Batch of 2 targets.
Target 1
Amino acid sequence: MMRRIAQAWGFASIVLLPNYVDMTSAAGDTRMRVAVPLTRIALAHLTDMLIVSVVFALLMAGLREVKGWPSVRWFLMGVLPVLLFLRNLNVIPFDIPHLAIAAAALLWCALLLFLIRRYPKTASKLSTFGGNVLAGFAVFAAIVTFQLVRAALWRPGPQAFSHPIPAAPANRPRLVWILFDELSYKYVFETRDPSLQMPNFDRLRSQSTLYTDVIPIAYKTTRAVPGLMLGRIVTDVEYTAGNRFRVKTVDSPGWQTFDAHASLFALAQHSGVTTSVIGWYLPYCPIFAQVATQCYWSDDDDQDRGPTMVQASYAENVWFPLRILLETSVWPRRAWDDEARWASESHIDSVRDISRHALEVLSSSQADVIYLHIPAPHPVAFWNRRTAQFDGGGSYLDGLDYSDRLLGQMLDILEKQPRWGATMIIVQGDHSWRTQMWRPLPGWSAEDERVSHGGEWDQRPLVMVHAAGEQAPQTVAARTSLMVVHDAVAAEIRAIAQSPFHP
């Protein structure tokens, strides 16, 4: 009996691994990306493990009573390893060609069939060994259970804080640094689709310097943004259960705690320059609690490999992953559409929240440096440019349309303020549109396929800089590292620090 319980528990832990791996892995990706406790999600995962364990145990008990159980057992031995492997493909940190997977599966089944027919005793021993391996996964399940319980008790760092900032005179320089996540130069300016109008990017372009050949410094936001803050190339990151953000860099390959006191916000603090931060996806406020003046961050997106989300109820987070697991087995297209819808709903919440806070800060904050990390045009689809409404089922072009509208609102606010004439604006992407990553995932649209020419990837993020008082467009065509943004921000912070505070 204990062996069968262990098998059921072990099976559940493996088949559900993609759902909870981001909560239990050393990378701590889920902890890093949410500003609220994970209690409901962790408990939902534990509940799913219990449900799958019970269903598996009952199913196996029923099959053992079937007259043809010996044949069924061999069938399961051939199929289950393959299915569990396929289920966990997105957990494996490298791509495996489909042809190689199919060949390995056929080879395994052929070997098993050969042993059954020619060496039945060896096959029987192999069957016993397989059952013991499955039962042995109960050790892994116990570890996972402990990690999920710990995740349920985890508490994040601060989501927001604000220190008073005195009003500044109109002639004091100011920097507004806007990071549109996944903003690609190619699709905004170089080969803009005829169906897309971007009047506000064009408006800012007419009085800014545009970099047309920017070399990215990372493929992921979690590397690119810390790299820009430090002025160093970040190669890997992790977020511990104790809310420590750790990085590896090109010049220091070992793990080290991210040094906020070496960041651009610390440079501002040391120079007497005030900062206001609105962030998404990264734990901005816990990381910069000691150096930023004002801060707010959030991320309502669904978990990368959940599929769960923080704003869903406990019941929804229990049921939806099981529903997707079932649909993937019997109705893959339905699972694909449901996952895309779920992801869109949560991303809409992120875009709404961050956009609202960004506009509020631009309207009210007296900070010398305002940094805004906007979760657009980052997929999945969240906007319909034809109706000008939040909606799923759209494309990257729809996300660009929303970004343009939001930029227009930002410019309207800034141009009415006394400090407009002394304001420098940086608009950038942290990386370009990662077509190769999004194309195999739910939410990729026919328009995405057309615009990207079948997923062709252009690596250049957009970088556009409006210097205070700049009136004409300029272009930098030379190949330029995205790190140019770090240098520009640092230079502007020093310029602000050197300016007199009183007129």
Target 2
Amino acid sequence: MKLPSSSATDLHKKNMRHMISMKDFTTQEMDDMMALMALLKQARKDNAIPPLFKNKSVGMIFEAGSTRTRVSFEVAATLLGGHGLFLSPRDIHLGAKESIDDTARVLSRMCDIVMARTNDPDTVDALCRMSTVPVINGLDTRFHPTQMLADLFTIKEHMPEGKKLSDLTLAFMGDATDVCRSLLLTCTKYGMNFKQIGPKKYHMEEEWLKMADEFCKETGANYEITEDLSAIESCDVVYGDSFYWVTQLDEKEERLKAFMPDYVITEALMQRAKPGAMLLHCLPANDKEEVTREALEGNYSVAFDEAENRLTAQMAILVYFTHKYTKKPDEALIKHHETEINNFLEKL
């Protein structure tokens, strides 16, 4: 007896979208996601989150380690009535004994959404090609869209009354990381001005600036890539990130020498930004390297609100990308299957 797939998720849905970069979404779509975040955050505060991910699962592929991404997705799935599966290289055969294509096809039959945090962008792209459920990029070497959604929401929560995101200027202190690239594209697409401040050797690559140029033409935003610390004086948001990552440990000393002490976010540096400027940091933070503990704990710092909003973002993402494709049975249909199965079991 051959039966079709029993997945409750439509495996042949039209217009299915993945989340690889925030640049692929309109500002209206980003606004919709943030509006959903606000509703879900209030529901969590009221301890009254509706089970919008009930009986659903998110397969979470982790080639790279994580605190916030793993915890936020797993907790988000649980709070919404579903389940998160942690899949490390030790747990699955991704690209080794099993092709990425086949992994994507199998996970699509068993999960309702797939999240992947990878060391190679080709892995995310390959999952998208073959997956019949939405794929969420949990970070690759190009983009970090889930962080961007949390960042935009956090800025909106704390920006001055009467201001819009497009009124603001954000300064990123440091290297052209995946977070820096994502901020450049997300800000300029949203109409926010963006600055990268750091040593010339670590400035943004030309290919990313060309993408930002197109967004600036559409929105009127502008960007500046500079070594000049005085550029911070016109900024409403100051953003920190590590000066090196786990794949750059052989460059650690060289990088720290290039960035320290000039580009470390200190209380004195924050005082040079616009009055009321806020400090964001995607974490983990290396105290006294890219940011001092005094700055991170300052009353202008919203870094830990930002971290909490990773959970808010993941709840919204799980709902936003699956709600259209779920079969919603009525009570009669559930009762029918319960009766059929119980009648069978009684005969065993």
